[in-house]
Structures are given as structure tokens and as C-alpha cells.
Amino acid sequence: MAWQNGSSTGRLILVGISFNLIITALINLMITFGEINSVSQALLWLTGSVYGRTWEHFMTLFPWIIMGSILAFLMASDLNNLQLGDDVATGLGSAVEWQRGALLLICVALAGASVATAGAVGFVGFMTPHLSRRLVGVSHQGLLPTAALMGGLMVMLADLLGRLLFAPIEIPCGIITAIIGAPYFIYLLITQR
Question: What are the domain boundaries of the chain?
Fold first, then answer.
């Protein structure tokens, strides 16, 4: 649906929001009728947590990170062109539809592998690109590695805060990133209109 009559960023976002609502409804249905032990584990995963993750989990994630990162870095100049708009990117020789589709698949692979391992740690994907852009500028050759490192650092610090703030109670890192990320996102919306 997002590629009907050519791709459109706005349409892609709307399809993503619609798909998210459908999946959320299905998850809520499964939680409603699930066993209590399975439901509590699912809720922890949905909140986003690195609790109980081992090197075995990382090694499962590692090939996806390497493959996706290499492909993303190889397409960094294409990302720079796409950032200028479809008409300018086409004028620069970019195959806009093909590149947008390839980049979408790379993003889905990287995000899917991360979410499968640690759950949906919210607002990391919203905050790190904006913070990284302030540090290194808009060129994706520097932005991609900076955002990746900053995202990992943010999850690590959120997990550390979640373990220390109300010890011995541990708060999942997804809750900490949401508490910090929501006000920051509102700040960005207000300042960037």
C-alpha cells in the first residue's frame, strides 16, 4: 500500500501506524487470553528490557548487526541524496524507489533483530538521530556510526538507571527511555515546528 503509485513518505508513515495498531490489537488479544506466566514475560519484553540477556543472545543478534550495518554504510551516500528530496535525488542519478525499498528492508532487519532480542525499547530511535545530528551534522557517513553508538550507550545507561534508581526493584530500560524520551520528543516538536 505504501508503494501504490510510487512511494510516499507520508503514506509509508500512515501504513506503518495502521499496521502498528492492528498488531497492537492482536497482542492485546493474546495477552487477554494467555497464561499468567507467559503474559508477564511478554509484558516485560513489550516494555523493553535487557534483563537476562546473555552473550548467546548477542551472538544471535551479531550477524544481523554486521550485515545490516555494512549495507547501511554502503548506502550512506544514497541516504544523503534521498534527504534532498525525490526530484533532486533523481537528478543526481539515484534510483529513488529501489533505494527507498532497499533501505526500508535494511532498517526492518536491524530493528527487528534488536527488538527480537531486547523488546521494544522506546524512543531510542527517535532521540539518537537528533542528538547525533547535533554532534556530527547531516551527512550519513558520520551520522550512522554516531547514532548506532549513541543508541547503544543510551540503552546501557537506561538499563543502569533502571537497576540503581529504586534498587532492589529493577525498572525495565524501555520505561526509563520513555520517561526521558517523551519530554525530549515534545521539545523537538515545539522547537522544530
Answer: 54-114
